[in-house]
Design goal:
Blueprint lengths: L1 H7 L15 H34 L2
Length: about 60
């Protein structure tokens, strides 16, 4: 298979799947985006819990 020769070439990135090859830079950028989004969701969850406590106390 020709694709194995391309992947085995030392100038190609080491990160690949059966569907596509991605660069390490792209992988790192996506990881940073994921981490940032995860933190935003965590902050939102915390704020919601605090808001719920406030609402329960004022009812």
């Amino acid at each position: 298979m020709n694709i194995k020769k391309i992947i085995a070439n030392p100038s190609t990135p080491d990160f690949f799947s059966k569907e596509m090859i991605i660069t390490k830079k792209s992988l790192n950028e996506n990881q940073l985006k994921y981490t940032y989004q995860k933190q935003l969701i965590s902050d939102l969850d915390y704020k919601h819990k605090e808001w719920s406590k406030f609402v329960e106390n004022n009812i």
